[in-house]
Amino acid sequence: MSERMTKGSVIAQYLPERVTPVGETIAPVFAPSNIALCKYWGKRDVELNLPINSSLSISLAHLGTQTRLSVSDEDAVWLNGEKVAAQDKFARKVIAFIDLFRGPQGSPVKVETDNNIPTAAGLASSASGFAALMLAIDGFYGLKLDPQCLSAFARMGSGSASRSLYTGFVEWQMGVREDGMDSIALPLDSHWDALRIGLVKVSVAEKAVDSRSGMNRTVETAHLYQSWPLQAAADLERLHQAIADKNFTQLGETAEQNALSMHATMIAAWPPLLYWQPGSVAAMHRIWQARAEGVEVYFTMDAGPNLKLLFTAEAEAAVKHYFPDMEVIAPFG
Ligand code: DP6
What we know:
It is a single chain. With 333 residues, this protein is of the alpha+beta class. It has 9 helices and 13 strands.
């Protein structure tokens, strides 16, 4: 029987013998946040973050994370201009990820990371955070990793981070290899300038169950989860077709149904996971009302109470009528 692979054992095969900084510091690197239209939900390998299904996302252009690494006399993590306590969960996660590359005996680093994602929008930052950190590690230690390694290693930080290395539409292919080196994201060669994403904030309170624990609980306890991989595979095909044909109705319908199917599996978990707040349900009804009144708008949601609306530039004014406070993003600039 093969020995169980760890993040460290997979990464070590691609690193030079000695990993040392190539200079005092690097220019800050940026990675965009992303929103999945076909969700990543469930892992076949929890250690390596290998997914049960392939997923497809759209990156949020200039919204994301910027990160810089510098030589320092102690490990220190700064977030949005403030030093984070060393024992803080965030700081420990960042340093543990750097340890995978420099080793626990590696020289200390200062990590400066800034999110320009409006905190009020309640968007996750772990995807752009680990993607930017991966790029910063690559630059700081002069690793010159190829795109496959960058995506596979960012994925070990957080699954959705594998998709945050690119702009536009990105597909994360689930892969079949045990070491996960084929479980990587690739950009789609398609633009859709008229596409818009609206961020609708319902609550920014920290959720009780993070997406990592939520997806593991769903896989372990929800019988309904058995239908998810099939649904996701079919949705992925439909999204590819919708993007190729610029068929917005098909894109929106597929993304909304995919998100609601994922949430159905969470509700069927035990203990149940219902990330929705009353305000989330009210917003869904408003969207369905808008559609009934002829405004083409759809939504997607992740493991949280906030909604991401999908519409085209043409419908923006009409959608704003229903959601005057939403923030609008043009993912293709
Ligand atoms: C619902 O990538 O945060 O947003 O791999 O455990 O770090 P880990 O999970 P994470 O999960 C994201 C789940 C999702 C769907 C998606 O973005 O595809």
